Amino acid sequence: MINIFDPDLRPIAEKVEACERLSFEDGLILDATPDLLGLGSMANVVRERLNGDKTYYITNRHINHTNVCVNSCRFCAFSKKEEEAGAYTMELETVLSEAHKYDGEKFSEFHIVGGLHPALPYSYYVDMIARLSDEFPHVHLQAYTAVEIAYFSKISGMTIRQVLVDLKEAGLGSLPGGGAEIFSSRVRKKICPEKIDAQTWLKTHKTAHEAGLNTNATMLYGHIEAGEDRVDHLIRLREAQDNTGGFLTFIPLAFHPENTKYEDRPRTSGMMDLRMISMARLLLDNFPHIKAFWIMIGEKLAQISLSFGADDLDGTVVEEKITHAAGAKTDQGMARERLEGLIREAGRTPVQRDTVYNIVSV
Ligand code: V47
Ligand code: SF4
Fold first, then answer.
1. Ligand 2 pocket member 352 (CB < 6 A)
2. N or C: less crowded end of the chain, CB within 10 Å?
3. What's the pLDDT tens digit per position in 208-246?
4. Do 223 and 247 form a contact (C-beta atoms < 8 A)?
5. What is the pLDDT of residue 150?
6. In angstroms, what is the span from residue 16 Cα to ligand 1's centroid?
């Protein structure tokens, strides 16, 4: 049942009940409505239609091999220049020993992303995947954002397709969803002028899907973007998914301003965090999953988001550096038992999944 007090939401609720696709204009209404509960209950209808009361989580470990980056995105507190204090780059031996650090935890995924290093050779990235794949044949390697893949293509002189095929042959399992930020070129030019444009991000994911690699998608919100930029971003992702069907999940990323060029901006509100999850669930009708990344929005809101459209909390993570560099107050990782407890308390059924949503245990 959908309870709505904003009359502008009623025609949208009728479409949701009839399983009709929402338009750009509908998206603008969702982005502006004060009726968060109306919005959330519509998103919950879709969430339960697609995923019942299941809530997915994964036992994963994040590894960031370097924070050195040739780009200087204005929203990023993680990256450093090579000579700057706090800059680090792991030797491959260190990446391997990091991966072994919690042996016995039975991770099903390593999530690996890093900066665009000015000097590391292309072989470093392929060897990292090959060696991890050799030592951890049962762990799925979700590594390198589209931004990194495009950079590898630049430094190696190979096409994006060749890079993806090469990495897949070495053992790459899928691509994470980072680097999408906001597709609007007006905003992108301001917040990350050196980063690949939206077309290149989308083309890299399309090429990955064609090469048999699934990928995720994200949107960084709560900085200088407007409502129409958020709706535009989601609709462009929906079109991309219509073409290839290779996206697994969408993750809205709440901007953290500390230690960034936008430090004077407030953090996102609870209203906005829940609105992004609900809006994504309603507009991305062809995405099987919407992930509430508990690291970014906090355990408490992530738990509530399970009734506002989200069906996935991501995972144990162990060590998160990117959002914590920008002032995240959450823990860096969470025990599997705690994740399960949060899900159960929210009235949902915890389902342990692997990266591509095969069920590991219920
Ligand atoms: O692309 C950078 C974002 C992303 C900040 O695929 C920031 O399952 C908030 O994409 N405040 C990398 N966000 C992380 C990422 C991700 C995370 C979890 C799961 C998955 C997945 C992907 O982090 C970057 C950028 O959009 N980011 N700085 C910041 N200050
Ligand atoms: Fe580099 Fe990525 Fe940070 Fe941009 S967001 S500065 S590309 S590490």
1. no
2. N
3. 999 999 999 999 999 999 999 999 999 999 999 999 999
4. no
5. 98
6. 30
Distance from residue 211's CA to the centre of ligand 1 (Å): 24
| Closest approach atom of ligand 1 to CA 175 | 6
Residue range 11-67, pLDDT digits in tens: 999 999 999 999 999 999 999 999 999 999 999 999 999 999 999 999 999 999 999
Alpha helices in the chain (DSSP H): 10-17, 24-32, 36-51, 92-100, 122-135, 146-156, 160-170, 185-191, 198-210, 227-244, 270-283, 294-297, 299-305, 322-325, 336-345
| 79-103 pLDDT, tens digit each | 999 999 999 999 999 999 999 988 7
Nearest residue by C-alpha to atom 18 in ligand 1:
293
Please tell me if the CB atom of residue 322 comes closer than 6 angstroms to any atom of ligand 1: yes
* Predicted pLDDT of residue 179: 98
CB of residue 116 inside a 6 A radius of ligand 2: yes
Q: Identify which of 116, 120, 148, 324 to mutate to test ligand 2's pocket (most ligand atoms within 8 A of the CB).
A: 116
| Ligand 2 atom nearest 195 alpha carbon | 7
Shortest-distance atom of ligand 1 to CA 249: 8
Ligand 2: nearest atom to the Cα of 192: 4
Cα–ligand 2 centroid distance for 77 (angstroms)? 9
Provide CB contacts within 8 A for 300, sequence distance 6+: none
Q: Is the C-beta atom of 178 inside 6 A of ligand 1? A: yes
Atom 2 of ligand 2, nearest CA residue: 115
Query: How far does CA 96 lie from the centroid of its chain?
Result: 24
What is the per-residue pLDDT across 123-168, written as a single tens digit (0 to 9) for each? Answer: 999 999 999 999 999 999 999 999 999 999 999 999 999 999 999 9
Say what the alpha-carbon torsion angle 103, 105, 106, 110 is, to the nearest 10 degrees.
-80
Q: What pLDDT shows up at residue 68? A: 98
Confidence grade of residue 1 (pLDDT, cut at 50, 70, 90): low
- Dihedral pair phi/psi, residue 313, rounded to 5°: -110, 10
Return the structure tokens found at 322: 């990117």
Cross-strand bridge partners of residue 312: 56, 291
Rounded CA separation 347/306 (Å) = 9
